[in-house]
Amino acid sequence: MTAYPLNDRDTRPALVVVAHGSRDPRALSTVRRLLDRVRVLRPDLPVHLGHIELNAPLLPDTLAGLDAHGTGAAVLVPLLLSRGHHVKRDIPETAAGARLHTRVAAPLGPHPLLVDALHARLTEAGWRTPADPAARRASAVVLAAAGSRDPESRIDTGRTARLLAERLGVPVIPAYASAASPTVPEAVRALAARGRHRVAVASCFSAPGRFATECAAAAPGIASAPLGVHEAMARLLLHRYDQALRTSATAPLEPAAAV
Fold first, then answer.
1. C-alpha span between 94 and 45 (Å, rounded)
2. Hey, which end of the chain has fewer CB within 10 Å, N or C?
3. pLDDT digit string (tens) for 102-141?
């Protein structure tokens, strides 16, 4: 990944993309390429990466490094697709302990740009909404997400599913890899019981990993790739960054932690 030096005169809040982290090496390489795409779209913006767990750099180390280089402020944008414990607790608590001024942006979903990426990945995998009414009545999509015990995460995933359904013109049913139900196989069986046997799985994961692989394996037909380096994802990260800065026009960034 390209290094981007900082200096004391650079007073723009840095963009820190906060990824979950994964044992799958493809995840880290995908996230790094996504950040490079963000840099192409906004070459004057300092862009950095921090992980919640499993991969370096960890978020506290990234924030400490920014502070050591004289960066005064940062906007933390979760590379997460719904609200949940990481967005509501882990990331804000880490930000509050940093020495520089911080603001935590909203997660990436729900949002029309996220639906753009989901739709594009499904199309790349071969999905076409049938023009024939009978074939359409037999069609549906399962939106496969990571899952969370937080009810707001389910609300966000449900909203993303509804936006995608509006785009596709067929039902889209949320399903989860862990911590929530239904699972992808359960959703597929429920759709089959309603006469919908032409079912694709839309992978609502930012990068490859165990959950994405398991959900794709449960697809009875088409399964889309993770969202990865799609340009809509890069644009969405920048949108959340800009949105957080607009909020800071009326509310200041969180103050640096006391020494």
1. 22
2. C
3. 999 999 999 999 999 999 999 999 999 999 999 999 999 9
Number of folded domains that form the chain: 2
CATH of the domain at 81: 3.40.50.1400
Torsion sign across C-alpha atoms 210, 156, 143, 107 = negative
The domain in which residue 156 lies consists of 112-217
Contacts of 72 (CB under 8 A, 6+ apart): 11, 13, 100, 101
Is the bond into 57 cis (omega within 30 degrees of 0)?
yes
247 confidence band (pLDDT: 50, 70, 90)? confident
| Helices (runs of H) and strands (runs of E) counted in the chain | 10, 7
Yes or no: say if 111 and 83 are a contact pair by the CB < 8 Å rule.
no
- As annotated, the active-site residues are 20
- What is the pTM for the complete model shown? 0.91
Would you say residue 42 lies in a domain? yes
Q: Please tell me whether residue 228 adopts helix, strand or coil conformation.
A: coil
How distant, in Å, are the alpha carbons of 12, 33, 99, 224, 245 from that of 202?
37, 21, 40, 5, 31
